[in-house]
Amino acid sequence: MGIVINDLSFAYGKKKALNKVNLSLTTGFNVLLGPNGAGKSTLFSLLTGLTQTVNGTININEDDLSNNKSKIMSQMGVVFQQSTLDLDLSVKQNLLYYASLHGIAPKKALINIELILSQLSLTERLHDKVRTLNGGHRRRVEIARALIHQPKVLLLDEPTVGLDVESRLLIISYVRNLCTELGICVLWTTHLMDEVEQSDQLIIINKGEIQAHDQSSLLCEQYNVDDIYQLYFALTHNTEAV
Amino acid sequence: MTFNHYYYCCLGIVKREISRFIQQRSRLFSALVRPLLWLIVFAAGFRAALGVSIMEPYGTYITYQEYIIPGLCCMIVLFNGMQSSLSMVYDREMGSMKVLLMSPLPMPFLLCCKLIAIAFLSLMQVYVFLLCAQLVDVDISLLGYLTAAPAVFLIAFFLGALGLLLSSLIKQLENFAGVMNFVIFPMFFLSSALYPLWKMQEASIWLYRLCQYNPFTYCVELLRFALFGQLNLSAFSVVLGATVITAVLALISFSPKFSQQR
User: Fold this and answer.
1) Closest chain A residue to B19 measured between Cα atoms?
2) For FRET with A101, which of A74, A176, B181, B231 sits at 20 to 30 Å CA-CA?
3) Can you list the residues of chain A whose pLDDT is less than 50?
4) Residue B183 has what DSSP assignment?
5) Mutate: best of A84, A101, A149, partner B, most B CBs <10 A
6) Tell me, what's the pLDDT at A88?
7) Which positions of chain B have pLDDT values less than 70?
8) Which among B69, B93, B85 is positioned nearest to B194, based on CA atoms?
9) CA gap B181, B175 in Å, rounded
């Protein structure tokens, strides 16, 4: 179970965004790290099927994304970088709407929603309008939404950007727990290196190419560096994030 | 995917549109104020200037107010269709459209659900308007209310599909103002909504021809007959044909391949 990408290339006109990307991700916490413009969002867009794959293939849970989009989407949860909640509707209305898009009956959806919201300490906000929530709470609602249909693959595009430390820690620890408890495959896209742990599978992307992919501690050993910061710098020559 | 999946999905999309409509109370208000102003102010002024002779489906001379009722109902549907497409553009800019696109259910089905929701809201607004119209002595029979429903639904489907098509072609929210000038106004004024086509023919033959080629004219005529419990077959055929063509074009324009090419 997981994501397998073969020879994936993509260009915006003449500008290459991804160049022959090959990746194999299994269950667990996978971190995709790269500077701005490295190709993270393009890869994310291709993985979610929002952009059509032209060159290369993407297999999710052994199904080809081009041919089995419906099946794959029913097993995939996504948290986009930009908030996609309807601000004028309540938390409950937003979540029920999403559940309905997956064909889940409202009664069944509500059971899942209450469980997930309680885990994310959001039960009290169920009837509040999203507009009244702070950034951290909105992010948690989006994570809850991505989990309603119990996905086997969870994709998160820079989910902690702009959040305070407390919210960041809560979200990242919750998603890490999901990996161990449910055995799902998580792809966590970020440019924040302090979110990477030694045991995580780390993928470093730069200029549309995968620079390295392995357990982060092993990569540090392999490149003879002390930490992720040095590793990142060595592979991207980018001081921006450091 | 079973029938239940499709059912809950459609229900969810319709519910969401209704919830959003209820949240935006001013939307209902403005949807009603516009045609009511036409009916109460404009029609009252033109009543004396414009006489409407006996014409189908009316069995006798009618007041101008009575004449423009179908046109004003279609105006509500037209504005609602365009408003919905505006909200689609907004959804796309805000990112909420991605949520819809991530559904495992097929895109044509999701867009059809959206159209059903648009049609349902249009129907609701038209009925509220017709009830208000009773206050200015416009009488519609119970049969008229019943037979108007499928006509309004079909017209709303057509204009909703047109709105979806436009929303896929409009890249920025700011460009939407153009829709007002290039779609809504020409469609409405170049039709039989405000004056019978023979009046237009007397004034200008090429304007008359334009009105004849405008599918909105047939929407108005379909509803005019439906409000009298009658079916105008030629108008029905044109509106149905226009609905099918526009819906197919809207579906194509929303396919990822087409979006990517643009």
Assistant:
1) A89
2) A176
3) 239, 241-242
4) I
5) A101
6) 86
7) 47-56, 59, 173-176, 256-262
8) B69
9) 11
Range of the domain at A37: 1-75+153-242
Distance CA B159, CA A2 (A): 43
User: Dihedral angle at the C-alpha atoms of B230, B231, B234, B240, nearest 10 degrees?
Assistant: 140
Cross-chain residue pair A96–B12, CB shorter than 8 Å: yes
Based on the fold, state whether residues A163 and A144 are members of the same structural domain: no
Integer Cα distance of A162 and A142 in angstroms? 15
- pTM listed for this prediction: 0.85
State how far the Cα of A80 lies from the Cα of A89, in Å rounded to an integer: 19
Is B12 within 8 Å of A101 (Cβ atoms)? yes
Q: B41: Cβ–Cβ under 8 A, 6 or more apart, which residues? A: none
pLDDT digits (tens, 9 = 90+) for A120-135: 888 899 999 999 998 8
Chain B residue numbers touching A72 (CB-CB < 8 A): 104
- Final residue of a domain: which of A150, A175, A192? A150
Same domain flag for A116 and A178: no
How many structural domains does chain B have? 1
Return the residue of A nearest to B11 by Cα.
A100
CATH classification at residue A181: 3.40.50.300
Contact A98 B16 (CB under 8 A): no
Question: In total, how many domains does chain A have?
Answer: 2
The dihedral built from the CA positions of residue B112, B113, B119 and B123, taken in this order, carries a sign that is: positive
Sheet strands side by side (includes A201-206): A76-79, A153-157, A185-190, A28-33, A201-206, A209-215
> Which token pair is A79?
């948290």
**Chain B residues near residue A93 by CB distance under 8 angstroms:** 16, 19
CB contact under 8 A, A103 and B260: no
CA B112, chain centre distance (Å): 15
Binding-face residues of A in 125-184 toward B, CB within 8 A: none
List the domain range (segments joined by +) for residue B24: 3-261
A51/A119 same-domain check: no
Task: Report the residue of A97, A128, A152 to disrupt the B interface, i.e. the one with the largest count of B CBs within 10 Å.
Answer: A97
- The percent helix, strand, coil of chain B (3-state, each to 5) is 80, 0, 20
- A113 and A62 together in one domain: no
